[in-house]
Write a structure and sequence with these properties.
328 residues, Rossmann fold, 14 helices, 8-stranded mixed beta sheet, 8 strands, 2 domains, alpha/beta
Length: 328
């Protein structure tokens, strides 16, 4: 059985079991408040058809509460938020979709869908409309940042707050490790494209997870093994290489994004692994240049800060949302 089929089967079992629980609860003459809270805290695994993309997403929390939209990055999926969702869903409605080309989202092949950050953002924008979201707070990480930034620039009235976990918005945040990718931007030759394939290897993805962590043994190995198995598939590898090339469009839009920050002054919390070798601390500090009340906090870890500092970051995010997002 392939990794995707195995993951789909696991999620289907979770949906079926949660469905039986809901049927049992509905059959009862009364549902206690504790039972209602437990039902809302249950994470559900769903799909939403968004034009030609069948978007997989995780959902938890009371839909009458303010919504938080969690956008993952490369090379992972909504799985990276598996432990944060139960923390946030106690007080918020939480949605975490898999971007096209990642996780369990069923996406068209190359040629039938344009794998660019603009198009990924369009799909997620349409996803929010399919689910009927009027407003939402954004949590962005890595690739999720340029997707979320486009949502904010396009719909500033919908974004209630922003949490950036190593989600870059400034050239100062790009480390020297971007040199091979920049070379590909300048010369999109086959040789420069092929040179980036090593980034998709298990060893490189494992290093993304472990680099900068004081104790690499706390990183669950299934994280980088599942990511590598997915992005390393031949068809998906081509998608990832397309996105490497298109990342230049994100850097090009930084001035527009920074103007959005200055004009709209959204509430923003940056929670940043200070040892990140991909998006370095000056990128987090730069938020203060355009946002008067930017709250920037560093943690002694690397790129995947939630894998090592979940409790502290989760508490900080809750405190920030409680302070900035209006409740019904």
């Amino acid at each position: 059985m392939s990794l995707n089929k195995l993951l789909a089967a696991m999620c289907a079992c979770a949906v079926i079991s949660s469905g039986f629980g809901m049927m049992t609860a509905n059959a009862a003459p009364e549902i206690s408040m504790n039972a209602k809270i437990a039902a809302f805290n249950q994470v559900h695994y769903r799909y939403a058809q968004v034009k030609d993309v069948n978007v997989f997403y995780r959902e938890a929390g009371d839909p009458s509460n303010p919504t938080v939209l969690l956008l993952h990055g490369f090379p992972t999926s909504s799985f990276m938020y598996r432990n944060l969702i139960p923390i946030l869903s106690k007080r918020y409605h939480v949605l975490a979709p898999d971007l096209p080309g990642f996780g369990l989202t069923e996406s068209p092949p190359q040629g039938q869908y344009t794998y660019s950050f603009e198009n990924l953002s369009n799909t997620i924008d349409q996803f929010t409309q399919v689910l009927g979201l009027k407003t939402y707070a954004l949590q962005v990480f890595d690739y999720g940042a340029p997707v979320g930034w486009r949502l904010a620039v396009k719909h500033p009235e919908r974004v209630t707050a922003i949490v950036s976990q190593n989600g870059n918005a400034y050239v100062e945040g790009l480390s020297d490790g971007w040199a091979p990718v920049k070379k590909y931007w300048e010369d999109p030759s086959q040789a420069n494209r092929d040179a980036l394939r090593a980034v998709l290897d298990v060893a490189a993805i494992k290093d993304q997870y472990q680099h900068g962590t004081p104790d690499p043994s706390v990183i669950a190995p299934e994280t980088y093994l599942m990511d590598a198995a997915h992005v390393g598939q031949p068809a998906n590898a081509q998608i990832q290489l397309d996105l490497f090339r298109d990342y230049k469009a994100n850097v090009d839009m930084y001035p527009q994004l920074q103007q959005y920050f200055r004009d709209h002054q959204p509430h923003l919390l940056a929670v940043w692994g200070k040892n990140d070798a991909i998006f370095i601390p000056p990128g987090a500090e730069a938020f203060k240049r355009d946002l008067k009340h930017a709250d920037v906090r560093f943690f002694d870890t690397g790129h995947f800060a939630l894998e090592t500092h979940l409790d502290q970051i989760g508490a900080d995010i809750l405190e920030f949302l409680d302070r900035t997002v209006k409740r019904n």
